Fold this protein.
Amino acid sequence: MIDIHHHLLPGLDDGSPNMETSVKMAEMAASDGITHIVCTPHANDRFTYSRERNEALLNELRARINGKVTLGLGCDFHMSYDNIQDALDNVGRYSINGGKYVLVEFADSHISETATDSLYELTMVKQRPIITHPERNPVLQRHPEKLAAWIRDGALVQVTASSLSGRFGRTAQATAEKMLKRNWVHFLATDAHNVESRAPIMSQGFEFLRKHYGQSTAERLCIHNPMAVFRSEDWPEQPEALDLDPDASQGQLVTFRKNSFLKRLFG
Ligand SMILES: [Fe+2]
């Protein structure tokens, strides 16, 4: 399995506190069947973000784990004005392995009216947004139509593996299941922070998917799609996402200045 969201690098954020813990997390992931990890430290107002420092730590960790897991580098990109401006000026500083996919996290409390414009701006520098754990976001739990509109325009969706077992509460669990049933989910990832409460375990999520949605869906969300992202390959064909049509949805849909902008850019 390939884990595209993992706070593995030590001492940078609220993830691994030190190199010893990072080594343990990598070993735990390897034992769970995870072969590739994208290290994704937070890039937000709370923690200082330096791609150069992150690369140095990545190389140090690679030497320590001796090939047990293949490591890549990205970040947990918080959707903020400053981040967007910097990403527009410095393509690849935030993306996964310097390629064409970037994780995008929204604040829990509020999603700005300009969020769609910001996603559009990212696409202008050839960055395809992957919305991280929308099932855990209270705004998106209440307003799935916002997510539907972004998916309709080509944004991708990552769900946290442990949301499926209720780690983030019943609402997150139920939201994740609704999204899975509609084919709105493209990736499962651990969003691991430590070896205890937020451990790097994907196998239970894989098994849940296999049991309820079939082997091919489990492999698509845990292996094939995340591998395409890890390698910055073209986006593979997916099953049709259901209930994205604004006319068929209930509630007020977000309207867009640039309809299907991602599809135009990425096909
Ligand atoms: Fe995260």
Q: What stands out?
A: The chain has one domain: 2-266. The domain at 2-266 is CATH 3.20.20.140 (TIM Barrel).
